[in-house]
């Protein structure tokens, strides 16, 4: 077919080829676009946290438009949940077949540790979480030097804080069965947040 203005003839073969190979950033390549968004979101959330992360920065890093990001993820919270699944699913897929195997306990443990060491988590931790750990460690040391914080060891304090937060969510299904209250309801999450902040303040502040 011929375009107006004397432009060159475009064959139907070219049109079909363009339709069959849509650009990244369109809905025509959902797996590639979604994966690109998730990879970009890992870095953004790791650097800025869920509160400071910006979806427009994630879209730019993924080379997609913001509308497409919201096409796959309805809001930033949904994207954050998907990032957690993306990061930890690789670890689960590697270690669960080992743990479910019929191997003797000693061999099973060795294979589990070997499988865990080969996961992308080491790279993700090194590139994204280590900088945050170093920054928070700096804040702790500054607070200790100023006399505002108790002299805690960051290697003990920070994992304890993370464990306090993560364990609540991981044990939510069990708590729901035992106490007959939804631990993940908005009201309960607000109460838990207040408690955690007060608990950590009492443990850390002088």
List the helices and strands and how they pair.
Layout (H helix, E strand, L loop, with lengths): L11 H9 L9 H23 L2 H8 L3 H7 L3 H24 L5 H13 L3 H25 L8 H17 L1 H8 L6 H19 L2
Helix pairs in contact: 2-3, 2-5, 2-7, 5-6
Question: Key terms for this structure?
Answer:
206 residues; mainly alpha; 0% strand; globular
Short description:
The chain has helices at 12-20, 30-52, 55-62, 66-72, 76-99, 105-117, 121-145, 154-170, 172-179, 186-204. By secondary structure, the chain is mainly α.
Report on this model:
By secondary structure, the chain is mostly helical. The chain is 74% helix and 0% strand. The protein is built from 10 helices and no strands. The radius of gyration is 24 Å and the shape is globular. The N and C termini lie far apart (78 Å). The N terminus is likely disordered.
